[in-house]
């Protein structure tokens, strides 16, 4: 049996990152536990001080098939290149003509730039096309 996993981002502002990534990949912010209208209500009920409400957030695949993505607040800022990054497969795969993939990838880069991502550069090599980007806190990811 496979081991379940979640992807974890260390970050400065978990709620902001959760909002960005949910829009980027079509996930939703994880709903609060049953019986609570909001996460603030739940956190208050278990004694979390209000100044710690933004210490974590998570997003989930609404279809239930993708991994949970968890954002945890850390005091330090990102200082070096990620050793692991996400690739968002928006182009259609190798069976899709590269011109079509390029159009799709570029359109998605524009959409994500409009919600706060930064384009680093595009690559067109050996029949592949992808765009390297940064999220709101400088984490690298690719659109392919």
Plain-language structure description:
This protein is of the alpha/beta class and 144 residues long. The protein has two domains: 6-73, Signal recognition particle alu RNA binding heterodimer, srp9/1 (2-Layer Sandwich); 86-143, Signal recognition particle alu RNA binding heterodimer, srp9/1, CATH 3.30.720. It is 25% helix and 28% strand. It is built from three helices and eight strands. The strands form two sheets. A four-stranded mixed sheet has the order 1-4-3-2, with helices on one face. A four-stranded mixed sheet has the order 5-8-7-6. A hairpin with a 2-residue loop joins strand 6 (118-125) and strand 7. The longest helix is centred in the last third of the chain and has 17 residues, at 98-114. The two termini are 30 Å apart. The relative contact order is 0.19. The mean pLDDT is 95.
Which short descriptors sum up this protein?
28% strand; elongated; alpha/beta; 4-stranded mixed β-sheet; 2 domains; 25% helix
Summarize the structure.
This protein is an alpha/beta fold and 144 residues long. Helices cover 25% and strands 28% of the residues. The chain folds into 2 domains: 6-73, Signal recognition particle alu RNA binding heterodimer, srp9/1; 86-143, Signal recognition particle alu RNA binding heterodimer, srp9/1, CATH 3.30.720.
Could you tell me the CATH topology label of the largest domain.
Answer: Signal recognition particle alu RNA binding heterodimer, srp9/1
**Class from helix and strand fractions:** alpha/beta
Please state the CA-atom Rg, rounded to the nearest Å.
17 Å
Order of helices and strands: EHEHEEEHEEE
CATH architecture of the largest domain: 2-Layer Sandwich
Number of helices: 3
Count of β-strands: 8
- The gross shape turns out to be elongated
- Low-pLDDT residue intervals, each spanning 5 or more residues: none
Approximately how much helix is present in the residues?
A: 25-40%
Top-tier CATH class of the largest domain: Alpha Beta
What number of structural domains do the residues give?
Answer: 2
Strand order of the largest sheet: 1-4-3-2
Strand content: 25-35%
């Amino acid at each position: 049996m496979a081991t379940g996993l979640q992807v974890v981002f260390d970050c400065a502002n978990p709620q902001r990152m959760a909002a960005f990534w949910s829009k980027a990949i079509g996930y939703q912010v994880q709903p609060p536990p049953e019986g609570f209208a909001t996460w603030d209500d739940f956190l208050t009920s278990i004694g979390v001080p209000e100044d710690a409400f933004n210490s974590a957030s998570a997003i989930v695949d609404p279809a239930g098939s993708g991994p949970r993505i968890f954002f945890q607040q850390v005091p330090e800022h990102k200082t070096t290149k990620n050793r692991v990054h996400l690739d968002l497969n928006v182009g259609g795969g190798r069976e899709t003509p590269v011109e079509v993939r390029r159009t799709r990838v570029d359109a998605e880069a524009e959409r994500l730039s409009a919600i706060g991502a930064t384009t680093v550069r595009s690559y067109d090599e050996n029949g592949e096309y992808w765009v390297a980007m940064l999220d709101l806190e400088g984490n690298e990811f690719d659109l392919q």
